[in-house]
Amino acid sequence: MGIHVHVRLSQGLSVSAEGELIEHSRCRCGATFTKEFDAEAGKPEGPAPS
Predict the structure, then answer these.
(1) Domain carrying residue 30
(2) For the purposes of burial, counting CB atoms within 10 Å of the CB of 20, is it exposed (0-12), middle (13-18) or buried (19 or more)?
(3) Which of 21, 27, 38, 50 could pair with 6 as two cysteines, CB 3.0-4.6 Å apart?
(4) What is d(CA 38, CA 21) in angstroms, rounded to the nearest whole number?
(5) Which pLDDT does position 11 carry in this prediction?
(6) CA separation for the pair 12, 25 (Å, rounded)
């Protein structure tokens, strides 16, 4: 039996009524994820650390 690691596959972007960017993603196992980005918060995010 192996260890499962969620791999987030992008399912698209949307904008909330409050103006936040929402990223939708899912894993092949069926798990779903959403992440909100506040456009008014300031600095943009840099590249992901490797």
Answers:
(1) 1-40
(2) middle
(3) 27
(4) 7
(5) 94
(6) 7
Measuring CA to CA, which residue among 37, 31, 42 is closest to residue 15? Answer: 37
E strand spans, the chain: 9-15, 21-26, 32-37
Residue 14 maps to a domain: yes
Q: Does residue 48 form part of some domain? A: no
Q: What is the DSSP letter of 2?
A: P
Amino acid of residue 34 = T
- pLDDT, residue 10, reads 93
Tokens describing residue 21: 């960017």
Q: How many domains does the chain have?
A: 1
